[in-house]
Amino acid sequence: MALVSADSRIAELLTELHQLIKQTQEERSRSEHNLVNIQKTHERMQTENKISPYYRTKLRGLYTTAKADAEAECNILRKALDKIAEIKSLLEERRIAAKIAGLYNDSEPPRKTMRRGVLMTLLQQSAMTLPLWIGKPGDKPPPLCGAIPASGDYVARPGDKVAARVKAVDGDEQWILAEVVSYSHATNKYEVDDIDEEGKERHTLSRRRVIPLPQWKANPEMDPEALFQKEQLVLALYPQTTCFYRALIHVPPQRPQDDYSVLFEDTSYADGYSPPLNVAQRYVVACKEPKKK
Questions:
Q1: Across-strand partners of 145?
Q2: What would the mean pLDDT of 122-144 be, rounded to a whole number?
Q3: In the listed set 47, 69, 101, which residue is the last one of a domain according to the structure?
Q4: Domains contained in the chain, number
């Protein structure tokens, strides 16, 4: 029943999203005439080589209108982003409900049948579709945006992806990509599943052994302070694997769509680090390993 209800709500949200996209285009088309007037006014000023009181007043009015038009379009886009976030949340809730009920659709088969290549593609898609934090003027990026850690009392929700420190088969400990199954407030422990279908293991872990992954990408152009900086020590997901390893930031992202360039610790190289490798913001977290005894 819950799945049917979610499907109905998703259909409603998609319709609302479609209307907002149409409104965005209408708003953009409506404001285009004003932008053309601004350009033509500047061209006439250059031709006459003077800034008369008339042009000054005219430009002030045109720019005031352009600012109001941009704010109106921005508000519509924010509403559209909210709809997208709600749709993604409902899809995730539906996936978790289906997983619990033992139901799977064709686009997401059970783990036991998921091929390695399919898993890597899904992880890549998750990184690409991670939303970019877009705050209003004066807003600071929230916890779990880029390099900003979760608040001290934060509890990851079922279905959230995390970096989890577990014991490997050989007894060594390693950080793996995992999915939260549940959290017990009584014991302050998580139950997490290894995201890698080859592991097929569930782990019970204390909070200090679980690091929530970012829920938003940080915009390097607007919020550079929300990114890890050059030579900062982090845990990063090694490409084409589901394990996190210690690494140094080589080059932080320069644009919103850019990945980090990192140097993984690797004793097989003379300087102790691998050549630069790209890792998405989604899979780079603060290094939180306990001190070695």
A1: 216
A2: 91
A3: 101
A4: 2
Among 282, 249, 2, 267, smallest CA distance to 131 is for: 282
The number of angstroms, rounded, from the C-alpha of 116 to the middle of its chain's C-alpha atoms is 23
pLDDT digits (tens, 9 = 90+) for 227-240: 999 999 999 999 99
Q: What is the mean pLDDT of residues 85-100?
A: 82
Per the structure, the complete domain to which residue 11 belongs is given by: 1-101
Q: Is residue 120 part of a domain?
A: no
Strand partners, 162: 178, 212
Tokens of 12: 């409603």
Residue 7 neighbours by CB under 8 Å, 6+ apart: 94
Structure tokens at 253: 């992202």
Q: Say what the pLDDT of residue 115 is.
A: 76
Distance CA 166, CA 177 (A): 10
Q: Which residue has the higher pLDDT, 105 or 206?
A: 206
